[in-house]
């Protein structure tokens, strides 16, 4: 899978590395989101005294209309965000295994590194600790910092993140499993990397499987994040200008 060369084909300009959490830093086959989705539906069913099936429809509707289920619940029903987040992130993390090679690859990247997630800091810290990555990032920018109602892919989410950490978009790379999150990152000038987590029930993941080529807003794609990051670090040592080489597309 390839496309015409772009000024951001290389990573020599990148000073800030930004990673989504779920289905990006850990593999999708951990299936944490199945647990989270079920907990969200249960929370809604209990809160509104409605059947679980109806709650599932409500969860999905708010996700697509407001960016996250929580944003819809706050905007339309003034739900307490902490009650929701504590409930939905009370899940079994035993399926998440330590990833020392990924940690080493992240450490080798030049510059600062962040987690940027629509989940809570508490959830991100718990998952990162399981992965052995908690100490590899300068900070976690979470849904609390976004005041709950400005999640990715909203432009304001990225602008708040940039302002909080004095980040220049043109010098930053964004790694995410959802193409629509990368679309906003691209519009703001970031280098974008799709972490292809393989098909899950999410419609965007299903659509990726049918791509014949990368969309214009995605500079790179990989389904092997650790190897991809290692290649970024090794690439400049291969000689020549990074910007003259083809986009990275590491598919194992």
Question: How are the SSEs ordered, and which strands pair?
Answer:
Layout: E1 16-19, H1 32-48, H2 52-66, H3 69-77, H4 81-88, H5 100-108, E2 112-116, H6 121-131, E3 139-141, H7 155-165, E4 172-176, H8 179-187, E5 191-195, H9 203-208, E6 220-222, H10 225-234, E7 249-250
Parallel strand pairs: 1-2, 1-4, 2-3, 4-5, 5-6, 6-7
Helix pairs in contact: 1-2, 2-3, 5-10
What keywords describe this structure?
globular, 7 strands, 252 residues, Rossmann fold, seven-stranded parallel sheet
Short description:
This protein is of the alpha/beta class.
Report on this structure.
The structure is a single chain. The chain is an alpha/beta fold and 252 residues long. It contains ten helices and seven strands. It has a seven-stranded parallel beta sheet with strand order 3-2-1-4-5-6-7, with helices on both faces. Helix 1 (32-48) crosses helix 2 (52-66), helix 2 crosses helix 3 (69-77) and helix 5 (100-108) runs parallel beside helix 10. The protein is globular.
